[in-house]
Design brief:
This protein has 583 residues and is of the alpha/beta class. Helix content is 36%, strand content 19%. The relative contact order is 0.09.
Length: 583
């Protein structure tokens, strides 16, 4: 509703890692954070203005995030002795125990009111109680001065085909919630969050996983190649496979493989056959794909590997977000096995990042790893739907002419890019062999030491020369100074907000964000040379900082790290900025 109304927004779903987390316990709380604004919104926010707690566990898990001016709405029907005990409260006054009794607390018997609202609806009690979210939404619409028309239209669109009987009950309970909030006289203030100024165009709300799938479809269109995705379902990447499966009409083919290895191997086969080949996974799946990734590097076939990172190691905390797969993406294969790495920085940017990853893979004949994160994949924001005419054509280096001797040489390279030609099976005269064993330029298996070293360096240089084809690193702020704050991936919005806050406090600093990890943008050394200290912010123990320190050992790198399965808070980065400026 806020997206349609015109607000900028950012969302952050936060689910339990257990499939059936114990109901009513703190570990079983599911949360959904929404930050709306009349200005550009870059994060889901540190602290909340309104908390809706449907049970005592939800209150206990989230009371710490309430501002001192926050409003708390609780369903008093759930705050019985059993609910308080499950949540681990020691007293019968949870508000006082959590020290939030001084907030504006709206204690409403939401379940009872919902049952009363829909007593004549013909729905059974279980179905009626599912509607209590709509009652709360009605209250929120009153508090934030929102018209109900947007939601009425949404309900009609959502239920008109399969469940038309649900339209009237949901409308009624929504209206009753709105009326209840207007009549109880316990809400001291209402608020208006005006639409944010935006570039003209058509917008929609989009999640990172959906944007990734659409970016790959756009690359398929611009390359003229059919898209094939072979994947095994894994949290939090599964939604990309599910979204691609909906678009057979756009030439997308999807296969849910029996395991991660089968997923990538079918994709490599699809690449050999001339498809835009994709496989999607998360950290544990990327580990399983590592041997096949080496095969894709050795055969020099285009492949996009999407890694939606989650908290590890091993199964870790599957529903929580981290940036802890960077080292695996950089080094997690046997032998000298280089491949480009692209990172998305927001849910909407996942579209462009996926398009870029596919373009690099197809034009440079290499597997590419696209790093996303659970925070991005499940999060959402408004997205200005682009015109496909604004995106460049993708031109794979297809083999078209045989050399003078009439023999196709699969590893003969373009002298500038070192990219080999792509011959599709079935092309007469272009028969050739690729595989896991080292070859020479003619495609003949070779264990010659000098040839192996030559091919290793050519594959490495092919990846490094991609730097001339990617955008330069941009600096937000002065081009030189005491401190450059650096990040990659989904930390973008939090760092940007922290830098803006530090500047409002009178501090001078600059910010640069890396969407391209390997190779780094061509001007990275030039940018770094202009700053005395570089603060690297990332959701791991310092993997990107170590990577940069290895390349630029002369620079003074400072670290801002968090490994809690949660995004940064803006204040955490501000504290690191202040510390870096003082030392």
């Amino acid at each position: 509703m806020s997206a349609i109304y015109g607000n900028d927004l950012s969302t952050f779903p936060d689910y339990p890692a257990e499939i059936r987390a114990p109901h009513g316990t703190v570990s079983g709380v599911s949360g959904f954070q929404v930050h709306i604004g009349s200005e550009h919104v870059t994060t889901p926010g540190d602290l909340c203005d309104m908390l809706v707690a449907m049970n005592p566990a939800a209150l206990k898990a989230n009371a710490k995030w309430c501002k001192s001016t926050a409003m708390i709405i609780i369903d008093s029907d759930a705050f019985d002795s059993s609910g308080l005990e499950k949540a681990g409260f020691k007293t019968d006054d949870p508000l006082e125990e959590l020290k939030v009794a001084d907030r504006t607390v709206i204690v409403a018997p939401v379940s009872t009111l919902t049952l009363e609202s829909l007593k004549d609806s013909g729905l059974d009690q279980k179905a009626v109680l599912k509607c209590k979210n709509m009652f709360i939404l009605g209250m929120a619409c009153f508090i934030y001065s929102r018209p109900l028309d947007y939601i009425y239209s949404y309900l009609e669109k959502k239920f008109s085909k399969k469940h038309p009987e649900m339209i009237a009950p949901n409308k009624k309970v929504l209206f009753d919630g709105y009326s209840y909030a207007a009549n109880i006289q316990a809400i001291p203030n209402t608020y208006v969050v005006e639409p944010s100024p935006k570039k003209k165009g058509t917008y929609r709300n989009i999640s990172g996983n959906q944007a990734t799938a659409w970016g790959l479809l756009a690359a398929s269109e611009k390359s003229g190649l059919p898209l094939f995705c072979g994947s095994y379902p894994i949290t939090p990447a599964t939604a990309i496979l599910e979204e691609l499966a909906l678009h057979k009409g756009l030439g997308a083919k999807t296969m849910q493989a029996e395991d991660e290895i089968a997923g990538i191997c079918t994709a490599i086969g699809a690449a050999f056959a001339g498809n835009l080949a994709v496989t999607t996974t998360s950290g544990p799946g990327l580990s399983l794909k590592s041997e096949a990734l080496g095969l894709a590097v050795m055969t020099e076939l285009p492949l996009v590997v999407v890694d939606v990172q989650r908290a590890g190691p091993s199964t870790g905390i599957p529903t929580k977000t981290e940036q802890t797969d960077l080292n695996q993406a950089l080094y997690g294969r046997n032998g000298e096995c280089p491949m480009p790495i692209v990172a998305a920085h927001s849910p909407a940017h996942c579209f462009d990042a996926a398009f870029q990853a596919a373009k690099i893979a197809l034009e440079h004949m290499t597997p590419v790893i696209l790093l996303s994160e659970g925070f991005l994949g499940n999060g959402s924001e408004p997205w200005l739907i682009p015109s496909m005419s604004d995106y460049p054509e993708i031109r794979p280096p297809f083999a078209t002419e045989l050399p003078e001797d009439g023999k196709f040489k699969p590893f003969r390279r373009d002298p500038e890019t070192l990219v080999r030609q792509w011959a599709i099976p079935g092309m007469k005269g272009f028969e050739h062999r690729v595989g896991g064993l080292e070859k020479n330029h003619d495609g003949v298996i070779s264990s010659d030491p000098e040839n192996h070293e030559l091919m290793v360096w050519e594959r490495e240089q092919k990846v490094e020369r991609i730097a001339s084809c990617i955008p330069a690193l941009e600096v937000d702020g002065p081009a030189s100074g005491e401190l450059l704050v650096v990040g990659w991936g989904g930390t973008y919005g939090h760092i940007l907000s922290a830098v803006d806050q530090a500047r409002k406090e009178g501090k001078t600093l600059s910010f640069a964000h890396f969407d391209f990890i390997k190779p780094l943008p061509a001007n990275t050394a030039e940018v770094f040379a202009s700053f005395k200290r570089i603060l690297v912010c990332e959701l791991n123990c310092g993997q990107f900082a170590a990577y940069l320190r290895n390349i630029f050992p002369e620079k003074d790198f400072r670290l801002c790290n968090k490994v809690q399965g949660q995004p940064f808070l803006v204040k955490e980065i501000v504290e690191s900025i202040n510390k870096a400026l003082q030392s």
